Amino acid sequence: MSNPPDKPAPGQRKSTTITVTRFIAEKHTDAVAGLYIESVKKLGAPHYSQREIDTWQTWAHNKSIVTNTLREGETLLAWHSGIIAGFAQRSPANRINMLYTHPAYARQGIASKLLHRLTNHTIYDGVPELFAHASRVSRAIFEQQGFTCGGEEWVERRDVRIQRFLMLKQL
C-alpha cells in the first residue's frame, strides 16, 4: 500500500469520502497493525509519556495476536483512496474494543463514522447499552457521539500504568 497523502495546506480540508468494510482478509493485518502503531505514537504523544506509548503499542508487534483479535466480534475498516485510514471493533456486542485513525486522517470524521456505524449495528442487534475504555486521545470523540464518562481507570501493562476512561452510552 502507498503512504497516506500529506496533510492539506492550512485552511484546506481533505475530502472525507470514505468507504467502510468489514475486516475479512488477513492480508490487511499488517496495514492495520501499522496504522495502530502510528496512531498510538503520533496521536498519543501529546497525552502520554514515551514509556506509556511504548507499552501501549506492543500489541501490534505480534501478527498472530493482531489477526486473532481482528477476527473477533465486528471489525470495520475505513478506506480512503484505497488506503486503510482507520479501524474500529465491537467485541463483545456491547463494547467498542478499538477505535483508531491514522494520523494523516485525524480530525476528518473517520473515527466518528466508524463509531456511528458500530453504534447503529449495536442498536440493530437489540443491545441496550454500549461501553468503551477510552484513552485520553479518544475520550472526546466518544463524548461527541453521546457517550458519558463513567469514571477514570488505570490499566497496568508490563509494569506501566496507563490512564483510560469508562465511557457509557444508553441506546
Radius of gyration: 15 Å
The helix tally amounts to 5
Order of helices and strands: EHHHEEEHEHEE
Number of strands: 7
Q: Which structural class is indicated by helix and strand composition?
A: alpha+beta
Q: How would you describe the shape?
A: globular
Provide the low-confidence segments as ranges.
1-15
Q: What fraction of residues sit in β-strands? A: 25-35%
Residue share in helix:
25-40%
Give the neighbour order of strands across the main sheet.
Answer: 1-2-3-4-5-7-6
Biggest beta sheet attributes: 7 strands, mixed
Describe this structure in words.
With about 170 residues, this protein is an alpha+beta fold. The chain is about 30% helix and about 30% strand. It is built from 5 helices and 7 strands; from the N terminus they run βαααβββαβαββ. The chain has helices at about 30-45, 50-55, 65-70, 110-125, 140-145, and strands at about 20, 75-80, 85-90, 95-100, 130-135, 150-155, 160-170. It has a 7-stranded mixed β-sheet with strand order 1-2-3-4-5-7-6. It is globular, with a radius of gyration of 15 Å. Residues about 1-15 have low confidence and may be disordered.
